[in-house]
Amino acid sequence: MARTPRRHRRLVLPLLCLLSQGATALLFAIFVRYNHETDAALWHWGNNSNVDNEFYFRYPSFQDVHAMIFVGFGFLMVFLQRYGFSSVGFTFLVAAFTLQWATLAQGFLHSFHDGHIHVGVESLINADFCAGAVLISFGAVLGKTGPAQLLLMALLETVLFSVNEFILLSLLGVRDAGGSMTIHTFGAYFGLFLSRVLYRSQLEKSRQRQSSVYHSDLFAMIGTVFLWIFWPSFNSAPTELGDGQHRTALNTYYSLTASTLSTFALSALVSGDGRLDMVHIQNAALAGGVVVGTSSEMMLTPFGAMAAGFLAGTVSTLGYKFFTPVLESKFKVQDTCGVHNLHGMPGVLGALLGVLVAWLATHEAYGDGLQSVFPLVATGQRSATSQAVYQLFGMFVTLGFASMGGSLGGFLLRLPFLDSPPDSQCFEDQVYWEVPGEQEAEAQRPLRAEEPDTQA
Amino acid sequence: MARTPRRHRRLVLPLLCLLSQGATALLFAIFVRYNHETDAALWHWGNNSNVDNEFYFRYPSFQDVHAMIFVGFGFLMVFLQRYGFSSVGFTFLVAAFTLQWATLAQGFLHSFHDGHIHVGVESLINADFCAGAVLISFGAVLGKTGPAQLLLMALLETVLFSVNEFILLSLLGVRDAGGSMTIHTFGAYFGLFLSRVLYRSQLEKSRQRQSSVYHSDLFAMIGTVFLWIFWPSFNSAPTELGDGQHRTALNTYYSLTASTLSTFALSALVSGDGRLDMVHIQNAALAGGVVVGTSSEMMLTPFGAMAAGFLAGTVSTLGYKFFTPVLESKFKVQDTCGVHNLHGMPGVLGALLGVLVAWLATHEAYGDGLQSVFPLVATGQRSATSQAVYQLFGMFVTLGFASMGGSLGGFLLRLPFLDSPPDSQCFEDQVYWEVPGEQEAEAQRPLRAEEPDTQA
Amino acid sequence: MARTPRRHRRLVLPLLCLLSQGATALLFAIFVRYNHETDAALWHWGNNSNVDNEFYFRYPSFQDVHAMIFVGFGFLMVFLQRYGFSSVGFTFLVAAFTLQWATLAQGFLHSFHDGHIHVGVESLINADFCAGAVLISFGAVLGKTGPAQLLLMALLETVLFSVNEFILLSLLGVRDAGGSMTIHTFGAYFGLFLSRVLYRSQLEKSRQRQSSVYHSDLFAMIGTVFLWIFWPSFNSAPTELGDGQHRTALNTYYSLTASTLSTFALSALVSGDGRLDMVHIQNAALAGGVVVGTSSEMMLTPFGAMAAGFLAGTVSTLGYKFFTPVLESKFKVQDTCGVHNLHGMPGVLGALLGVLVAWLATHEAYGDGLQSVFPLVATGQRSATSQAVYQLFGMFVTLGFASMGGSLGGFLLRLPFLDSPPDSQCFEDQVYWEVPGEQEAEAQRPLRAEEPDTQA
């Protein structure tokens, strides 16, 4: 059996890449066109001022989001001692594929008219957001799935993400700029249900590789820090221009400072000897960005952002310490990166915070800006209370799509020809990568002599 | 005694985090409000064009500054072989705390009206600047202070930073956009005086850890390069819009190229065998950004920027080679990162350069732009010479605040319950962090076998 | 002989740095002035609105390009196990020098009037582009040249780059915004011809160092990912404002996703056992950015961008697998980083794609935007076919300049006092850098025990 998967893999991954690329290219040729701000003829037809091109309002934020997806997520997952190539490499592959596929899936639902999908900088941001959700799910199954499985997962998840997003934003009129629901809650529970279906009772066999070494933890901090600094751009990238983007960035900034402080406090408190745990710092400190994903465009107030961030950092750190083990032992969910703690719980909290802040919205607090944040309330089609109920409903819709989609995905990924790594070869780059020095190294030294910088 | 600090630490760090977070949250709730450009009602009240929102002029620069603080400073200090977790982790903690606290301290002094502090993107930039000063001071005491000490240092330094900044910019009418005085000179001498008070005569016991390994030097270069590329944004982030930001970025760019060339030249010259020293490249090459912090918004000319950068790189490299040892042996100042060479001397040089360029300011050279750069000179309230004298005075005020503040801070940080690391455990992550593989590693190999990639 | 070079180097590198810095500073003093948008008097003279300052349209893109040059190129070349200091350090030195020198060379040719060179944000972008070409050439000779040689190479290459660029863009009216020809083709073939002249028949002696270790490959991925995410800014930084920048960024984004998918597919296909090769992922995945350098500002269509990226990733991966060995054995070109695969072939393909897309340009497709993309066609001075012929001619001019320049450079770099590393000391940091722990390490362990994280 050891040889069959390898021969399979030799064809499955390339075939999947080539087939999916062929299909998206064909669909692009038929359906995808430049939008009004991107097309030479259309833009110049209206005698527009260049200052007004959407590009100048959104492209800097887009680039920050782009850095979060590829640098942030990619390196955050490099913490495993022998899975760095796969973490950053599969992030690269899966995200690149998702960007194409999400342009189509979201395009058909959001910007399809006159028989064409019209793309511009907002398409890029939305596609990156979808890639964010897929990478969150990847975090749950990191080390236990091969690249062909991940591509299939992305294929399915992108479709469901787009449908869920469409239902929330377009049909239900839910507000969720930074995606507490559509990105974090969806991505986390999709990944967790998927991981549940792929449960490995024999994962012990690879447990010695499921930890970090000194330098892999430093690489992971690159991911953490890039996610942390650019999160204000993430939440504000798709919001209304002007005060909307400005306020969203500000709220996210304060929320993240608070989640950082609570994470350090809790990490020291829950450890036996008062020392800090890198896993908490790398992850839970980011929960402040997740928890204001829905509400940061609203009049949350700087204090509100801070309180939310504090709570999220606390819940997330406690989750890593106390809930992750239970999740595996009781619920048979093996969550490699702890996405339940960083995206799942803070995402749900963020959705609930959005319910609360929407419920509190008044004409007095928002003035004419109410039109931008809650257009249906501003035009009198809904009361603030009604908006809050829709927000809550949106969360349950998201949980439903994520759990069903993740379960379905799990069964799909169990297809035997997808070349899943064996239980004894999880968290191991050599299964999928040519690793430098593997021959010499294998012959030479015993396992776990590989922490070169940590001995006293 | 070995057990008492650990029990202390278990409570001191979390308590400090929670108390300070509680206090800032309370003050935020009472005092901090969105400003006119961030508030939904206020922004829409005036029928503003979104193009005019300050966000679009300053947010991209802010993000670059944000990257410098967390990626740049954080990774620059990772050069120590066994202190990477602390370098990047404590940078994270201390900067996050400072961002909150500086919003308040600077807000009360700069943007307090009608009983409230009004925040927007400029508040974010200013808070990040204050965090920069605190991290410079951190560089002086790196490896010799625990996180609780650093939080207290940040608490004190932020207040003094804000007062000094207020005196210079608001009371004295001094120009210092990129902070040669307010950030670099202040941060460096605060840290150096603090380090003087905390002088450890027995630091030899930890000397074997006070050096780099091959990969830690590469991590540090991540910090260097991010600081280098984004420094034009740092100096230009708070300057006047239009030509002001444009010119500042340009001057900083040229100054940095020159400090890089002089650093390479001098590093090879002063070494015994013509080889380059990573310490110089990682640090002194950045001195060009520091030295034009005051003058880059002025009509410095590209040549002037280049000459200044060249001088700064030279002085800084010579400082690392010849002055740092003297600083420790004669002045009993142990300056781990050599902040005196990168921020202290170039900061003072930058202040003096500002004196010179202000003195040379004429209506002819600045035209109507004089109003933006030297408003008091443009309106005739001051002559250029008088402005130059004020600039010089501002430097001495800064040195005074920094030296007194740093000394005070040093005595504060000697409070015994703050859990300073013992002399034999400086520059060591394991004191404050759970380090992967420490048990196996400790049992296994002798000290300093940890340079795995450098042996021939 | 072993001692003479070291004594030489002690003077050659510093002297070259100081001389070149002195010369550029002098030329800056005489010739370089702020342009209309950077000068306080000139900008305020016209009563301009700050919104219109070029700074706000181009500075965010410039910063992305700046990150690509220093972070992207610098770290991409860190993949060698013992050459990380040199890769990132010499990138730093050579690029800093080139930025100064290119400001002059390009300034004399492009923005010289009234006896002065006028600089602004576009000068910064153009200088960074020139540095990109120089660093591509550096990639071909990486590990086999000392810093003094590299400075001389940059001196010569910058001049030829600027002349070639001037001929193409100004004399021939060729379009090449993202530099498929002027940057990638020029830089690659300059480097390859230079490497041909510097051919080392005894390079086997250093072959054991010409490979990666586990963590050096992860550092290289930092370079890859930063190049990948910011490439849309690279191609769009100098294009026309409005739809031009917008479309260029969009096309580049889609092209890169396709080259990533084809690289993963081909890498797995061409390996013996279906496993992926880090060399391909680190490099060939970027070919999509190169291949649309000329055409991404044109009406390429998203599908066209995708098809081009797919082709480039394929050609590039096949090049690494099959052509690089032939290049060395048959053509005696030792191409350390495989720049022929990443920049050479995709650059030529990109030039040809530009020929095709220019040939297809119609008034109907571009509307009034034709004026921005093909001004000579819009004004009737040329037909689209004629523009296509000029584009093709531009490619041959570039190949001519690159091959002659590279050959000339090769003979120049063979000057004996430039201290080239001996055949047995190539790809080795210790020749030019003080490396931590070298004494202990040398005494201690055999070669190639240095892959600490890859043994099972």
UniProtKB/TrEMBL annotation, chains A, B, C:
Transmembrane domains' residue ranges: 65-83, 90-112, 124-143, 150-172, 178-199, 211-231, 251-270, 303-323, 343-362, 392-413
A matching Pfam family: Ammonium_transp
Single GO MF annotation: ankyrin binding
GO biological process, one term: ammonium homeostasis
Compartments, as annotated in UniProt: Basolateral cell membrane
Annotated signal peptide: 1-25
Gene Ontology cellular component annotations, sorted alphabetically: basolateral plasma membrane; spectrin-associated cytoskeleton
Protein's membrane topology: Multi-pass membrane protein
UniProt keyword terms in alphabetical order: Ammonia transport, Cell membrane, Glycoprotein, Membrane, Signal, Transmembrane, Transmembrane helix, Transport
Domain Ammonium transporter AmtB-like span(s) in chain numbering: 24-414
Chief location category: membrane
Catalyzed reactions per annotation: CO2(out) = CO2(in); methylamine(out) = methylamine(in); NH4(+)(in) = NH4(+)(out)
InterPro entries: Ammonium/urea_transptr (IPR029020), NH4_transpt_AmtB-like_dom (IPR024041), RhesusRHD (IPR002229)
PANTHER family reported in the protein's UniProt record: AMMONIUM TRANSPORTER (PTHR11730), AMMONIUM TRANSPORTER RH TYPE B (PTHR11730:SF42)
Oligomeric form and interacting partners: Interacts (via C-terminus) with ANK2 and ANK3; required for targeting to the basolateral membrane.
Family: Belongs to the ammonium transporter (TC 2.A.49) family. Rh subfamily.
Function: Ammonium transporter involved in the maintenance of acid-base homeostasis. Transports ammonium and its related derivative methylammonium across the basolateral plasma membrane of epithelial cells likely contributing to renal transepithelial ammonia transport and ammonia metabolism. May transport either NH4(+) or NH3 ammonia species predominantly mediating an electrogenic NH4(+) transport. May act as a CO2 channel providing for renal acid secretion.
Protein name per its UniProtKB record: Ammonium transporter Rh type B
Organism, as annotated: Peromyscus maniculatus bairdii (Prairie deer mouse)
Gene behind the chain: Rhbg
